[in-house]
User: Fold this.
Amino acid sequence: MPFLLLVLFLFPPWAEAKKIIFASDPYPPFIYEQNGEAKGTAVDALEKILEIPRKDLEIRIIPWKRALKAAEQGSVDIIGPMQIDPKKDYLLFTKKVFPSEEAVWTLASSQYLSQLNWKTTEELRNHNLGYVLGYEYAEPFGSYLKSPLAKKVEVQDVIQGMRKLLSGDISLFICNTQVLEFYAKSEGIPLKTFKRIGPPIVEEFGVFGISHKSKLARDLDKINARISKLPPAKSALN
Assistant:
């Protein structure tokens, strides 16, 4: 058999290279599904930091626990955005890709609460504080929400939390700033309706985790170099 025919037989032109598999749970604006297509800032960033076209990226939107297990087993290459967690020793963490903060929000129309510049969580205990069940919150919110003295109100998702804030069922709401921005726009609520009070809590969130078993693991330095060249993200809220 001629050499050229042998090459075509072993490596046919229609054969696709193995795709990079990215997994995450839905977390707009970082990753979400719209009209059956995965979208979000995490998807856009991956194209740049991995230097691959979208067609070479397989995206799986699955529950977060499944994404972690798949990365541990090596059946997915990269997951996130997430917090750095040294206990997850099956992952290599990139540099931070997305700025991220959690904050306490209220209605800007509330003359009293909009001026509440809390310094410690003790000052929040007189107010109904909404939080999304199942989320992991940065400190001091994580510890505060475990306290039996906190007047906490569970909500199923960010939209429900925003609606409870608008209806007066809760006075305050803990939410990631970028997530609140996304849902305010999608629900047609002017951003100025909400006001961030007190100090924002910058968290170690917004990195990707690469499976030790992935071929991407050997390219971590190159990936981090590309992350350093990404333009800074902007926020429309105060």
